[in-house]
Write a structure and sequence with these properties.
Helix 5 packs across helix 6. About 25% of the residues lie in helices and about 20% in strands. Strands 2-1-3-4-5-6 form a six-stranded antiparallel β-sheet, sandwiched between helices. A hairpin with a 3-residue loop joins strand 3 and strand 4. The protein is of the alpha+beta class.
């Protein structure tokens, strides 16, 4: 289960709307959806949580590039909605670098392990981290400091963020 909502800042305060992400395939699609929620180019926050395992915040300010924060990249990577947020840039990868080219590898069964895979998932050093990624200062000017954001638990993060923004009532109406 996941929950996603748009919070758009207006002259009258925050307006919330429930959003369905089934038709969103890319970060660009998500940004377009958020911009549609605020015709005045005001700040729009996309809040996403999945099964109390991770949460993400995408901030759209007018036509600026989206700013992203994800609480646990590894948990988000296992989610189709999280994959939308985990761009190559966010993960510090070269664009289009999806890992080794399997056609270029010589997989004849004689490969030697490289010894770097003492990761609990058996993954490589380039695996997605079990830690926050992105812009941890994304909500600083809205009343949620970097330290507070990083300390949030996934199970109550969106409510805590909405409360700090003064938008908890409007968020609850779409929950």
């Amino acid at each position: 289960m996941y929950f996603a909502a748009l919070l758009a800042r207006t002259e009258d305060g925050w307006e919330a709307s429930d959003t369905e992400l089934d038709d969103v395939e890319t970060l660009s699609d998500l940004a377009d959806l958020a911009r549609e929620a605020s015709p005045e180019d005001d700040t729009v926050l996309v809040l996403i949580e999945q099964e109390d395992a991770w949460f993400g915040v995408v901030r759209i300010d007018g036509e600026d590039d989206p700013r992203i924060y994800v609480s646990d990249a590894a948990a988000a990577a296992r989610s189709s909605y999280g994959e939308i947020l985990l761009t190559d840039e966010l993960l510090g990868r070269d664009p289009g670098d999806d890992g080794p080219d399997l056609d270029a590898l010589d997989l004849d069964g004689t490969e030697e392990p490289d010894g770097d895979s003492d990761d609990e998932d058996g993954g490589s050093a380039d695996a997605v981290p079990h830690s926050p990624v992105g812009d941890s200062e994304i909500l600083d000017d809205l009343g949620v400091s970097e330290k507070e954001l990083k300390a949030l638990d996934a199970d109550d993060a969106l409510g805590t963020i909405a409360e700090a923004l003064g938008a908890s009532e409007v968020l609850e109406t779409v929950r």
